[in-house]
Design brief:
3 strands, mainly alpha, three-stranded antiparallel β-sheet
């Protein structure tokens, strides 16, 4: 993927009531999962099962089963009928790739107008 990709994460992420119970094991697995979704532009928030080894590696988590159980129990991850897990509120927080693309287009057009008017 070309260019920098972004996801939205609350600056108080580690202190939010849903994240605190999973502690130092769950938060490091949850955050790379969010980053994976952003990197692969998965708007639905569905973390596919084949992504789990990569996310776990990024997190430095060797035994994922108990950590995932904690994430599910706390409501941060929801088991999907399609396999994998849906990351709670991901799509609401991060919007869709089409929305991001539209925002980039709006910014580009705004910059181009400024350049044409001699304001750049």
């Amino acid at each position: 993927m070309a260019g920098t990709q972004w996801v939205r994460v609350d600056v108080g992420y580690l202190r939010t009531p849903k994240v605190q119970p999973v502690g130092l094991n769950g938060a490091p697995l949850h955050l790379p999962a969010i980053l994976y979704l952003g990197e692969h532009r998965i708007d639905s928030g569905l973390l596919p099962p084949e992504a789990l080894p990569f996310v776990a590696l990024d997190a430095g988590v060797r035994r994922t089963e108990p950590v995932i159980a904690d994430l599910v129990e706390c409501g941060l991850w929801h088991p999907s009928t399609k396999g994998g897990f849906v990351i709670h509120d991901y799509s609401e927080t991060n919007g869709s790739a089409s929305e991001a693309s539209a925002a980039r287009d709006r910014k580009r057009r705004w910059r181009e107008r400024g350049t044409q008017d001699g304001h750049a």
